[in-house]
Amino acid sequence: MDISSLAALFASAFGVTFATVVVPSPSTVAASRLAVRDGTRAAAIFLAAVLTLDTVVFLVLVFGFHPLLSSIGAASYLVALAGLGLTIAGTVMTLTARRDAGRLVARSQEGDEEQEPKARGPFLAGLLVPSANPGFWIWWTTVGTSFIHAARKWGDVGLALLLVAFIGGAAAWYIALLWALHHGRQLFSQRVEEKVLFVLGLAMVGFGVYLLWRSVPTLW
């Protein structure tokens, strides 16, 4: 077993997931609103449900969607697709870093009804809010599935570590966000947040370009 390659896969999956969830999204905005309205415990339950949904989708992809793609010969194109998706997403993140900086806190305080969780409880809301976000499904069926394709090289161990990386990357941001919300403060100042988004965007572009480069022999 190539431990260094497996460690690189784990670190990449963790980093890409973290970079993805840092960008303000319906889930983070809804969690912030819940914390303001109902307290951080409700926000924690909401985010736990988001992670639960991530886990379920991961298992569905591992045991259903990915084997189907492999059976029709489409799995070999996943790396290129993921590389293209990450390159585009990272480029957009760097270009909109200034606009997005401070957006999460601002929107959580504005009373944006569009982002108000419609479910009766925070756990059910945590399942419904990301499910209604097209970006959630696009990420999982492109980037997420390409990581699953790469992890299969190491069998069950690789897939288990990949799940830990995915959930860990998201949880790292959610825990920091909950801490900030509980103490009634911003996690980053607007200036620092802008720099963080810019750097994470560059990292996503770099990883996306690397995946595109890796996919060239397969495509040709």
Please outline what is shown here:
The chain has helices at residues 3-22, 26-38, 40-71, 78-95, 97-100, 103-110, 122-131, 134-151, 155-182, 190-219. The chain is an all-alpha fold and 220 residues long.
Label the structural class: mainly alpha
State the helicity in percent bands.
over 70%
What is the arithmetic mean of pLDDT?
79
Per DSSP, the total helix count is 10
Which of globular, elongated, flat, extended, rod-shaped describes the shape? globular
Q: Sketch the major β-sheet.
A: none
Radius of gyration: 18 Å
Using DSSP, what is the number of strands? 0
Q: What is the string of helix and strand elements?
A: HHHHHHHHHH
Taking the alpha carbons of the first and last residues, their distance comes to 28 Å
Poorly predicted parts: 110-119
Structurally, the number of domains stands at 1
Strand content: under 5%
Written overview of the protein:
- Helix 1 packs across helix 10 and helix 3 packs antiparallel against helix 9.
- The longest helix is centred in the N-terminal third of the chain and has 32 residues.
- This protein is mostly helical and about 220 residues long.
- The protein has one domain.
- The chain is built from ten helices and no strands.
- The protein is about 80% helix and about 0% strand.
